[in-house]
Specification:
8 helices; alpha+beta; 6-stranded antiparallel beta barrel; transit peptide; Gyrase A, domain 2; mitochondrion; 31% strand; 6-stranded mixed sheet; EC 2.1.2.10; Elongation Factor Tu (Ef-tu), domain 3; single chain; 403 residues; 20 strands; disordered N terminus
């Protein structure tokens, strides 16, 4: 049975607190804007981040993003550039992705792998050209990711590869009206930019240089992630977006979490960690088809490919769950419905679903209790409550794809 590090979350705001003192927190380029909009600021991954805004409840923020456009500050994420001869080979060693067949200006979800096939971090890899990549990794994994990449580069096989990181504003504009909003600020035809692709786009009146815009996000809605390296320009652009208040509102971490849960997306440290492989996290598709015969081609390949070839060897998997009543939270134990004393897994994440009603969550469950439709029991506040293993995503994703 999988062991899981976690504790019961008491409420929406407390869920996002880290142990850092306020004096030690890093402020993003949009910090003052958050304060101006009445944000509740909490420590998160060493940053001072907005969790809610004055006049907006968590549910209102969530539903606004599902129906209009929400602006998220994700500048706490770490942005990387990897380039030079051998860059593709390097990334194919530390990830299971097929980056050679990835078209230029296309991105993919991937993960950094340790030698045992465990997930060091998940990431988005954007290919700009042959041996030229832009990568975004998680804020909470900064130190570990940098140490991991430095160690992997130090092998001597990749001396020609250049790796650098940069701080700057990273904005996520998400929701069904995101495209019509962003189109007001550029002459670039955004309809030609599909989910998973990116380009360098001029924002009229804000910067002389183009900025990196990818059609991506963490909500299941259509949307964009916009990297703006100049702080003043980022603040001015975010302010201009928020002036369109009939369509755009600032959205914090609380809604970001419930939106990604409804979309069935993983959060590092919850649904995945260094003790879980992509297969155990139900991310088989991260392993590129061309990589599935290359036992020595990437870190942990022997174990991961063995799990792919022999599904019965995988003893637990990430699954979705739905329930009524008190919401399950990270760390809650899961038990067999037929044998309530038999512990069969643990909740990785859980939240009330503003879109559907009831609760949605994700769990790491032992086989055979992870089959869709299986009834389970979740221990919440000392009482075992009924839930059902359910298909993800819970809410249909609405990405902009070619027709």
């Amino acid at each position: 049975m999988i062991a899981f590090r976690g504790s019961l979350h008491k409420n929406t705001v407390a869920r996002f607190y880290s142990t850092a003192s306020k004096a030690d927190l890093i402020k993003t380029p949009l910090y003052d804007l958050h304060v101006d909009y009445g944000a509740t600021i909490v420590p998160y991954a060493g940053f001072a981040m907005p969790v809610l805004y004055k006049g907006q409840s968590h549910i209102e923020s969530h539903k606004w993003t599902r129906t209009n456009a929400g602006l998220f500050d994700v500048s706490h994420m770490l942005q990387h550039k990897v380039s030079g001869p051998g860059a593709t080979d390097f990334l194919q060693k530390i990830t299971p992705s097929d980056l050679y067949s990835l078209p230029p200006m296309t991105g993919t979800l991937s993960c950094l792998l340790n030698d045992n096939g465990g997930i060091v971090d998940d990431c988005i890899i954007n290919k700009h050209g042959d041996d030229s990549f832009y990568i975004v990794t998680n804020a909470g994994c900064r130190a570990g990711d940098l140490a991991f990449i430095e160690k992997e580069l130090s092998s001597g096989a990749f001396d020609s590869v250049s790796h650098s990181t940069f701080e700057g504003a990273l904005l996520a504009l998400q929701g069904p009206k995101a495209a019509q909003v962003l189109q007001k600020f550029t002459d670039y035809d955004l309809s030609s930019l599909y989910f998973g692709t990116s380009d360098f786009v001029a924002l009229k009146g804000f910067l002389p240089d183009k900025v990196h815009v990818s059609r991506a996000g963490y909500t299941g809605e259509d949307g964009f992630e916009i990297s703006i390296p100049v702080d003043d320009a980022a603040r001015e652009f975010a302010s201009a977006l928020l002036e369109l208040s009939d369509v755009v509102k600032p959205i914090g971490l609380a809604a970001r979490d419930s939106l990604r849960l409804e979309a069935g997306m993983c959060l590092y440290g919850h649904e995945m960690n260094e003790a879980t492989t992509p297969i155990e996290s139900s991310l088989n598709w991260l392993v590129g088809k061309s990589r599935r015969s290359d036992v020595n081609g990437f870190n942990g390949a022997k174990k991961i490919l063995s799990q792919l070839e022999n599904p019965k060897s995988v003893t637990f998997k990430r699954v979705g769950i739905t329930s009524k009543g008190p919401s399950p939270r990270e760390g809650n134990s899961v038990f067999s419905f037929e044998d309530p004393e038999k512990r069969v897994g643990v909740i990785a994440s859980g939240s009330p679903s503003p879109t559907l009603g009831g609760n949605v969550g994700q769990a790491l469950l032992d086989k055979p209790f992870n089959k869709i439709g299986t009834k389970i029991l979740i221990e919440i506040r000392g009482k075992k409550r009924e839930a059902v293993v359910s298909k993800m995503p819970f809410v249909e994703v609405k990405y902009h794809r070619p027709s």
